[in-house]
Amino acid sequence: MDTIASLFSFITTPVSWVIVQFHSVYGAIFGPDTGWAWGLSIVSLVILIRICLIPLFVKQIKATRAMQTLQPEMKKIQERYKNDKQRQSEEMMKLYKETGTNPLSSCLPILAQSPFFFALYHVLNAIASGDTIGVINQNLLQSAQKAHIVGAPLAAKFTDSASKVEALGASLTDVRVVTAIMIVLMSASQFFTQRQLMTKNVDTTVKTPFMQQQKMLMYVFPVMFAVFGINFPVGVLVYWLTTNVWTMGQQMYVIHNNPTPGSKAQASYLDRLTKHVTQHDKVSKRRDRAIVKAIVAKGRDRNEFERKFINGLSKAGLAAQADGSVIKSDTAAAAQAEDGTPTTAAGTPKRQQPKRQSKSQRQHGGAVGPKAVGEDEPKTSLDKSGQSEDKPATAAEQGGAKPAGGTRSKAQSGQRKGPQRPKSPSKK
User: Fold this and answer.
1) Which terminal residue of the chain, N or C, has fewer Cβ atoms less than 10 Å from its own Cβ?
2) Containing H/E element for 326?
3) Cα torsion for 331, 335, 340, 341, to the nearest 10°?
4) Which among 410, 383, 71 has a CA at the least distance from the CA of 208?
5) 78 φ, ψ to 5°?
6) Whole-model pTM?
7) What are the φ and ψ backbone dihedral angles of 127, each rounded to 5 degrees?
8) What is the CA radius of gyration of the chain?
9) Residues forming beta bridges with residue 2, ordered by sequence position
10) How far apart are CA 220 and CA 196, in angstroms?
11) Alpha carbon of residue 150 to chain centroid
């Protein structure tokens, strides 16, 4: 055992113990010296580690979304203090503290996997060198050296010499073909996983430097895997390919069921949810109720996909509630538009039309005639026979300019001739 492996025996010993336990199970089925027994032991180690890392993966998702939400504020801070790097860092840390965000949380699963990856690398390297490590004794060492995966020994590398590969009982061509295929699959799975995140689960309404960084990593990581992969033993390539496939499947599940707000994945999810709710008139799953509850709580801050979802429910005669459920909306007041305003049964907001004014009211500011100023209509006197006494109209009345308030038709002394302005009701 080399010096580095001995220093990290606290992690290599548990990893070797787990591999041996799985090997005892698969060895009883496929044979102890087969590649199936040792290969499946490594795959099972990956699955066990990833199951233990699920809580960290959930934290990673929340941290990534929180960082996406903070990107506009971070950009403002960078522009405001672009000439003062110290103040910029202080404001960034203050923003993280106020929002409870930790930038390192998005790297937690990778950081947590690193010790296990390191330990497995040294275990397989010791097997290739013929050294016992951890709980792998001499008998298990010989069994592991005999194990081949599609003709390639577990401990063989792409860069190994022909003599070293022959000592492990294989040909150099077989080793290089198998390792090359596994490196390509490993890099392709990493690229597809990152591309899926960028194209489907990123908020398209906000363009931030964070998106550019993720886009750059989409091309950098596969290249890094290809470069370093030629120095990995076949067993490590099995480990890394398995963890990449697990990450890809896990991410597909999250994107399908819990997408990022404003992303294309959210648009697809809300379309499926709209069809399901309109068919069954209810929200069945707890996860769906939580998302509907969050959309209702946003109010006017909803994005275009969320507004489309609320309007789709309104058109179907349903209304989303604050607890995430939906109810039938028989009255117009029960439905709500995307901005929270009351809507009709068709989903369109109500509007109150202004009172239409006559032409004379528009010309004279809405105060024309006795009725406009609140005066009573002139009463006609009735004689004893019950018929009204019609008085002949004066010249002023025939001209269409009746003096207001029953004043004389002729101008009195001290007044201007012509029609007078009606008195205000307050002065009456």
Assistant:
1) C
2) strand 326-328
3) -40
4) 71
5) -65, -40
6) 0.66
7) -65, -40
8) 40
9) none
10) 15
11) 42
Q: Which two tokens stand for residue 277?
A: 């709710």
The full length of the chain comes to: 428
Closest by CA to 265, choosing from 305, 322, 216, is: 305
Pull the structure tokens for residue 138.
């001499």
CA nearest neighbour of 53 among 7, 122, 8, 116: 116
407 vs 155, 388, 422, CA distance in Å?
118, 22, 11
For 140-182, where are the E strands, in sequence order?
148-149, 152-153
Per DSSP, helices labelled H in 316-404 are 359-363, 369-372, 395-398
The rounded distance, in Å, linking the Cα atoms of 237 and 242 is 8
Strands (E), 219-325: 318-320
Q: Which residues of 385-401 are buried (b: 16+ CB within 10 A; e: fewer)?
A: eeeeeeeeeeebeeeee
Count of other CB atoms within 10 angstroms of residue 368: 17
Residues 29, 257: Cα–Cα separation, whole Å: 37
369 CB burial (10 A radius; 0-12, 13-18, 19+): middle
pLDDT in tens, the chain (428 residues): 455 556 667 788 888 999 999 999 999 999 988 889 999 999 999 899 889 888 887 777 777 667 766 766 777 887 888 888 888 888 888 887 887 777 666 666 777 778 888 888 888 878 877 788 888 888 998 888 888 888 899 888 898 888 888 888 888 999 999 999 999 999 999 888 888 877 777 766 555 555 666 677 777 878 888 888 888 889 889 988 998 999 889 888 888 888 877 888 888 999 999 999 989 888 888 888 888 988 888 888 788 888 999 999 988 889 999 888 899 876 434 444 444 454 444 444 445 556 666 667 666 654 444 444 444 444 444 444 444 444 444 444 444 444 444 444 444 444 555 555 655 555 44
Q: Are 122 and 128 in contact (CB under 8 A)?
A: no
Which residues, 6+ apart, have CB-to-CB distance to 13 below 8 Å?
A: 134, 135
Asked whether 324 and 292 are in contact (CB, 8 A), the reply is: yes
State how far the Cα of 275 lies from the Cα of 258, in Å rounded to an integer.
17
Sorted by sequence, the CB contacts under 8 Å of residue 251 that are 6+ apart come out as 193, 196, 197, 201
Question: Any alpha helices (H) in 320-428, and if so which ranges?
Answer: 359-363, 369-372, 395-398
